[in-house]
Amino acid sequence: MSARRVVGLAVGVLAWAFSMPALAEPRVEDFRVRKLVVGTMRVPPFASRGDDGVWSGLSIELWQKVASQLNLGYEFREFDYDPDAMVQALQTRQIDLVVAAMPVTTDGEARFDFSHAYFAAGVGVAVRSEPTAGILATLRRLFTWQLLVPIGGLVGLLLLVGTSLWLIERRRNPGHFDPRMMQGIGDGIWWAAVTMTTTGYGDKTPITWRGRAIALVWMFTSIFCIATFSATLASSLVVGRLKSSVDGPEDLPRARVGTVAGTAGELWTKAQGLKVQTYPFLIQASKALKRGEVEALVVERAILGHMIQEYQWNDLLILPQTLAVRDYAIAIPSGSPLMEDINRAVLTVTHHPDWKELVHRYVGQSEP
């Protein structure tokens, strides 16, 4: 074999070898001749499936608009509350992308790619609360040991002061304090009550020096009693409506905390090193909170708000603090040729005026 033939054969082999990766690499056109498999899971209001099998939600509608712009066919594959299986399927390219409430993370970025973000999700805390409306709810908050103990103490003081004053005044002042025991003690309690409330009708007045001394001490003591009772009453009606020991993020390390697998809330609790009970889906976690199995639930505020509104769970309350903000994005296998086209389409959709209306319709807010 001549040297020229050997060189030509070697060049041909090298060219074929270098062309193999390029031939194996999928192209954008390849995705237009088949349906994309889009992984998702039910996380209202971002992805939910109706009884008729039709998918809806903020993330779903975003993808529908992106696919329409890029002229891509697709079908959804549901992962039943199993985010780990969905991510594994994406890595092994059993599915072409993931559209759900997928938070952008450094760990995820190392395993696959994310599109541009389309929503900033604020992580919040839900706790149990008492209903604030209705006579029965108000009475339940009034008849607590926190309020009944001061009331009992106040009644005891009125009885003590009234009886003491009657014992001193009954002989020298029978016109104001009846010598008969029941009637006289009643007169004494009446005087103590009107003096405490600063009403001071003047219909009953002590005339002995010991009676006046008791009256003077009682006038100043009653000021303290009224102030204490007012503060206790306000606490029972306002602060006492929260039935959880969690009033803010600082209480979470000492509380029983729950979260939902695959959410930004779970990522935040792990980053904080909190001991948490992880539930596979939100409705199970919410019912655990209602039953008192956990004292607080850490999940995205938008997801919590939708669940509370959907099921009319007025005994759950979302605290005002936002713990963290996590971006949601479409997850795509590393090196996918669809990345650039999807990114441009996401930017086009999210910068359109209709996007804010869509966010408000599903989430009720445009910011965390």
From TrEMBL:
Chain ranges of the Solute-binding protein family 3/N-terminal domain: 35-366
Write down the SMART domains for this protein, in alphabetical order: PBPb, PBPe
What is this entry's stated membrane topology? Multi-pass membrane protein
- Please report the stretch or stretches of sequence annotated as the Ionotropic glutamate receptor C-terminal domain: 35-365
Organism ancestry: Bacteria, Pseudomonadati, Pseudomonadota, Alphaproteobacteria, Hyphomicrobiales
- List the GO terms this entry assigns under cellular component, sorted alphabetically: membrane
Location comes to: Membrane
Q: Which residues form the signal peptide?
A: 1-24
User: Where exactly are the transmembrane stretches of this chain?
Assistant: 147-168, 213-234
A single Gene Ontology molecular function, please? ligand-gated monoatomic ion channel activity
Provide an example Pfam family for this protein. Answer: Lig_chan
* UniProt keyword annotations, A-Z: Glycoprotein, Ion channel, Ion transport, Membrane, Receptor, Signal, Transmembrane, Transmembrane helix, Transport
Gene3D superfamilies hit by this protein: 1.10.287.70, Periplasmic binding protein-like II (3.40.190.10)
Please state what the protein is called: Amino acid ABC transporter substrate-binding protein
- State the organism named in the record: Mesorhizobium mediterraneum
The parts of the chain that form a coiled coil are none
Q: Which InterPro entries match?
A: Ionotropic_Glu_rcpt, Iontro_rcpt_C, Solute-binding_3/MltF_N
